[in-house]
Design brief:
single chain; 155 residues; mainly alpha; 5 helices
Length: 155
């Protein structure tokens, strides 16, 4: 059945592609954060372990919202590691980094999610897709806050 919500088909397609990139970045950051939660060591273990848990839970919930928005626009959401690895702009780790490096990596990851979401926000706003624009504002708010909290640990 054809989607007819007032957003042009080509705009819906472009926005769904952008959402797929945001989903891939968010899911990759979720995996990285969950990995760090499991493997962090050192004097800050307890506080980082708990902070990483809070953040990966928020990221996990966000992936569902983003994927459901893609579906509401009439496209299929990517859902495999192969698809995410092609779409994401984040780098995976080849080893378990130190606790400080984990924090630095997550700051960079959250900042990248903000950039990816900001790019899509502009596109959604131009297409009068307020729902996607609002979703991108939520992503930017959450990732900016998480980046700030993590960055504060490094000062």
């Amino acid at each position: 059945m054809k989607v007819d919500t007032g957003i042009a088909a080509n705009d819906r397609s472009d926005i769904a592609e952008g959402l797929s990139r945001v989903l891939a970045d968010t899911y990759t950051l979720y995996l990285k954060t969950h990995n760090y939660h499991w493997n962090v060591t050192g004097p800050q273990f307890r506080s980082l372990h708990l902070m990483f848990e809070e953040q990966y839970q928020e990221l996990w919930a966000a992936t569902d919202e983003i994927a459901e928005r893609i579906r509401a626009l009439g496209a299929y959401a990517p859902g495999t590691y192969a698809e995410f690895s092609k779409l994401t702009s984040l780098q995976e780790d080849n080893s378990v980094p130190s606790a400080d490096q984990m924090v630095k990596n997550l700051v960079k990851g959250h900042e990248q999610v903000v950039k990816t979401a900001r790019d899509l926000f502009k596109e959604a706003d131009e297409a009068d897709d307020e729902v996607t624009a609002d979703l991108m504002v939520q992503r930017m708010q959450a990732s900016e806050k998480n980046a700030w909290m993590l960055h504060s640990l490094l000062e």
